């Protein structure tokens, strides 16, 4: 099975003015040398602190932002230079659901027009066929068919997110980018929406890339976990493996902070040293070294670790510890 998403050595750098005092320009490496692939019907979660590059990566997958270097292939098509009919197909085949259903739906459009919009723009369908597809999408997200006549403000937050999901799935995309899709919702309805995403995936066999800061959502939703730090992909692998045996010291700290507080002395949370460094001046060598609890020597502050394959499930880690452990191949 050909992967739905293949990302190879992808980078996005921005020239940023240092402002009045420092003067000159600096290079912000928002995403730096990221590689991974995702199979059909799988979910990958991007996690890491804010500013780690998750959103920049998601925007490149949506072709809302062009990479500085590297390549993205979706269903075998290179996104670079995509135009005309191929670009139109991409715009229906890759859809997004954003965090805030209050902001993402036009208040002046009826639900029918919101849900139908992608098809109206990209496909020439008869009115009857369009109605059939809108009804199919509303049914798939658990909304009544007469919702089509109403305006978004007549619905609750959870129902509005269902409308946003209906408008994303109507074109039967093979890939959906979910940017914090439940974090703006009441806690009581988050699990309903997460279950809805799972049901939709079973029905339509689409892949998801989910940007999330909540690790509970991540573990529930994702088959693969991608951990980012200062624009680098520091660990990538099957979600359960990463949760149970995190290899990169940053992943270990991130996961340990999310575990329940220690009551019986079995779990000692790893407290990260210092603040997240400015992405404009990332530390030398391994960018995590000033905060790392497992530094192995000078090599950590002088040489950037290579991305190294670990195990045989396509997992990778960027840390000298993994290289020193004699991992079989380096990417
Ligand atoms: Fe820590 Fe060194 Fe690994 Fe970086 S390369 S995460 S500093 S052990």
TrEMBL record:
Domain of life: Bacteria
Domain ABC transporter: 5-255
PROSITE patterns found in the cross-reference section: ABC_TRANSPORTER_1 (PS00211), ABC_TRANSPORTER_2 (PS50893)
Primary residence: membrane
Keyword Transport attached: yes
Membrane-spanning residues: none
One Gene Ontology CC term in the entry: plasma membrane
Keyword terms of this UniProt record: ATP-binding, Nucleotide-binding, Transport
Record-level Gene Ontology MF annotations: ATP binding; ATP hydrolysis activity
Gene3D superfamilies linked: P-loop containing nucleotide triphosphate hydrolases
InterPro entries xref list: AAA+_ATPase (IPR003593), ABC_transp_ATP-bind (IPR050319), ABC_transporter-like_ATP-bd (IPR003439), ABC_transporter-like_CS (IPR017871), Oligopep_ABC_C (IPR013563), P-loop_NTPase (IPR027417)
Location in the cell: Cell inner membrane
Stored Pfam families: ABC_tran (PF00005), oligo_HPY (PF08352)
Entry membrane topology: Peripheral membrane protein
Family listed: Belongs to the ABC transporter superfamily.
Name the record gives this protein: ATP-binding cassette domain-containing protein
Organism: Pelagibius litoralis
